Amino acid sequence: MSDFVWPAVRVEGKLARARTEWILGNGAGSYASSTVALMHTRRYHGLLVAALAAPIKRTVIVSHFDTRLHDGKTEHELSSHQFPGVPPNEGYKYLDQFRQDPLPRWTYKVGGGQLEETLALVRGRNALVLRYTWTGPSPISMSARPLLALRSIHGLTRAHGAMIQRVQMRPREVSVQPIRNLPPVVFRHQGIFVGTPDWWHRFEYLAEQDRGLDFQEDLWSPGVFRITLEPDVPHHIVAGLGSLPEREADELLQDAADAIRRCDPGGQRCWAVRNLAIAADLFRANLSPAPGVIAGYPWFEVWGRHTLAALPGLYFVTGRVQESKAVVEGLIERMRDGLIPNRLPDDGRPAEYHSVDATLMLFGVVKRLAELLPEGDPYPAETLSVLRTVFETLKVGTVDGIHVTEEGLLAAGSHGTSLTWMDARVDSVPVTSRAGLPVELQALWSKGCDDLAWLADRYDDADLAQQAREARDAARASFARRFWCEQTSYPYDVVSEATDADKIWMDASVRPNALLALSIDPELFTRDQAATIVERVELDLLTTAGIRTLSPKEPGYRGTYTGTIKDRDRAYHQGTAWPFLFGALSRAIKYTHPHDQGRKDRLRAMVEGMLSNQIALGQMPEVADGDAPHRPDGCVAYAPSVAELLRVLIEDLGL
């Protein structure tokens, strides 16, 4: 990969070069995304995907602006779409290059001149700005037709007769409200608007077809903007939901660009740190009324587990400690029965719970805040009472059966699969059950108790500190008795809660959960055991794209993540490689080989290599195939992947 921090693609009219994706956020959960050719391949693509209840309830408002140039003799169609049974229409043939530096910018060579199109999302607002700049010997006419979807990111639109066709026009402004339960869509322009409300039919999204889902959509247009482009004079179209920003278009563009550029730590840092620091901005939704972390684009929402796992990389190592408090507080405010919410559904339904791993991560996050915040900041001390409640709830047991056993370990209860990150189900059946005593939960519990004891000592609660230390010691002692598998020289992945000879069982599958446990609480293992875990991971699980979720030597291994949704779910934790797990390997190596410079150099080289395995430019994917060449897949931009790789470079390697 080049050390150039801003993504660029030299297209030169070749569609194969323009199939990669790009994505842009607004700091509050709204986003814009498509392929470089602006030919949508997902239902989640759009130029204005608005967060109606920021940062959730994402809704595709403006799908496309269908653009054509007229030079007096010939009409040049610049848009590219896939329709049934025919090749894509060929606007991409005019596309010379794409850059995201930091805003997405397309350069078309057409009609003896050059058209540059730049897109920005208004920071913190459900609004976009498009700037068109023509460079040529004489003026040229342009038409831009907005195509609206007006539906949830997870749905598709079909033509129907209930659209309200009314178009309200004021000088340089157009407003439409085709659906009563959505705010009006308002446009500001510098040309003439011709109202021709109508449906455009059967756009095809081929990535959805590959997943075995419906993949055709009809889009509605209120009409077309006609603009005369003078040479070297920028022309703008602004579109917003409900209302338009009052500031000038160029100011909005500049603000959006400046906000992203401020994320770049500068030329004194290595290119990989700069790339990941810029990528991190996409996930932080601190400009929304309810600050949070978007777990991944395009389809993930705010998840408690992903938020707390990504917090160190997104906020702590990038110097945004104060901003992180609002994110943590948002999760705490939604706690129920002592548990952090697992998921805040995008459609606005009530929060989902049962995420005990997210809840246990809270202990470590609050400890880090206490270490990083200025002395005297009251937040960690104020949060100690919340941690006490969590601690006491888990010892007694939650309504879902999550509880501390008599021997001091943490039992997953009846839900099994939703409690940890290995949560895939097919037909409601867990693919990788975590029922019983999962190894990673024991580490989170013992380390959580250790962190609670530290915090209680710091804030003069001797009784709580003693209780937490006793719980930690009991967990570590019981773990040492129950979890090491002599046959595999690797920890059991899950063991039964029961200890009776006729009821006891153990799962000896080689998975990365033992690595997670080592990275979370190394005191659970002897030094020899810790080194053995790292060696086994490097031998069986490590790939150039991340850490496999199951050893290829295991009978249930699936090396590719392809096919229908069910096919993918079956493979999700059965062999796919996850980039974010590289953070656990890095922490484990830092513990087992603290002075091995050769290993540190290899770690750095591996992170830099991972940055070339992208779906969306400048971002890190959720997963990759376990088998070579480790094709990236899953959501195109994943918060824990970006956050953990950035944390590794800054915190573990000191770059």
Topology:
Layout: E1 8-10, E2 21-25, E3 31-35, E4 46-53, E5 56-70, E6 75-77, E7 95-100, E8 104-110, E9 113-121, E10 127-135, E11 140-152, E12 167-170, E13 173-176, E14 185-188, E15 192-204, H1 206-210, E16 216-229, E17 235-241, H2 249-261, H3 271-280, E18 284-285, E19 292-293, E20 296-297, E21 302-303, H4 304-316, H5 321-333, E22 343-344, H6 356-372, H7 379-396, E23 403-404, E24 410-411, E25 425-426, E26 429-430, E27 437-438, H8 439-458, H9 462-482, E28 484-485, E29 490-491, E30 494-495, E31 506-507, H10 513-520, H11 527-541, E32 542-543, E33 546-548, H12 565-571, E34 577-578, H13 582-592, H14 597-610, E35 623-624, E36 632-633, E37 637-638, H15 639-652
Antiparallel strand pairs: 1-7, 2-3, 3-4, 4-5, 5-6, 5-11, 7-8, 8-9, 9-10, 10-17, 11-16, 12-13, 13-14, 14-17, 15-16, 18-19, 20-37, 21-22, 23-24, 25-26, 27-30, 28-29, 30-31, 32-33, 33-34, 35-36
Helix pairs in contact: 3-15, 4-5, 4-6, 4-15, 6-7, 6-8, 7-8, 8-9, 8-10, 10-13, 11-13, 13-14, 13-15
